[in-house]
Amino acid sequence: MAPPAIIAPSILSADFGALGKACADTIDNGCDWLHVDIMDGHFVPNMTFGAPVVAKIRPHVQRPKTACGKGTFDCHMMIEEPKKWVKEFKAAGCDLYTFHYEAALISTAAENPADHDEARTSPKEMIRYVHNQGMLAGIAIRPDTSVDVLWEILDNENKTECPDMVLVMTVAPGFGGQKFMADVLPKVKALRERYPDLHIEVDGGLSEATVDEAAEAGANVIVAGSAVFGAKDPAAVIGKLREAVEKRR
After folding, report:
1. How far apart are CA 14 and CA 146, in angstroms?
2. Which of 55, 91, 101, 166 is in the most buried spot, having the most CB atoms within 10 Å?
């Protein structure tokens, strides 16, 4: 049986004029996590916000009492240099640091924003480093990245180098409101067949209209932005997203 449903609304669609309240209200409406999209304008052609904003909204949401528990800040790091920002986001209140596989292949091993390092990091090194900093580690892949690149990482006997979650992007990363890409769901299915206990997240274009396909493929962590924050009844939408996953476990 797959892990329980986790609903993680993306705060990119929230009211930035009252962001702390919007986060607290969404938790009260029944979601499990908050998905925090961090974009640097380099890895993706858009910019959002950084660690100071995360630090400001953290007091509005109680920290999770257990790993992957309610209140988890799932920080999706769409940035070129993911290792440089691990400590900053840990201090800001991140619980799950989800970096992109593609970025980890080309980024440096520098551990602070102002540092320069000719050495390179790697996906396994990134996972180990995030774990050593006391956070959960997630690894994300773009729609055009083969899921096969993850087998070596997920099959690693060294569990400190294994991710706690895999994020399969169902849109091209960088902008909200894009159309759901159902053609990437075979990646989710392949992951679920090989790793029945793994948290598998999907992000992009998820709504009541598309969640059934994602849940059927095996996703249990559902990121939805405008579908939740733009709803007249966010609690009802969160409930329907959860139901779609739970009835397919």
Report:
1. 31
2. 166
Distance (Å, whole) CA 135 – CA 206: 26
Active site residues: 37, 203
For the cut 70, the answer to whether the pLDDT of residue 14 exceeds it is yes
- Please report the sign of the dihedral spanned by the C-alpha atoms of residue 145, residue 219, residue 51, residue 150: negative
**Cβ-based neighbour number of residue 159 at 10 Å:** 10
* SS3 of residue 236 by DSSP: helix
CB count within 10 Å of CB 240 equals: 17
Tell me the three state secondary structure of residue 239. helix
Rounded distance between C-alpha atoms, residue 122 and residue 3, angstroms: 28
Alpha helices for the chain (secondary structure H): 19-28, 51-57, 86-92, 101-106, 123-132, 151-154, 185-194, 211-217, 226-229, 234-246
Give the separation between CA 73 and CA 76, rounded to whole angstroms.
9
Q: Are 74 and 35 in contact (CB under 8 A)?
A: yes
pLDDT, position 176: 67
Q: Residue 216 contacts by C-beta under 8 Å, 6 or more apart in sequence? A: 248
Tokens representing 84 are 């440089």
* Residue 209: Cβ-neighbour burial (10 angstroms; 0-12, 13-18, 19+): exposed
Residues 95-149: tens digit of each pLDDT: 999 999 999 999 999 999 999 888 999 999 999 999 999 999 999 999 999 999 9
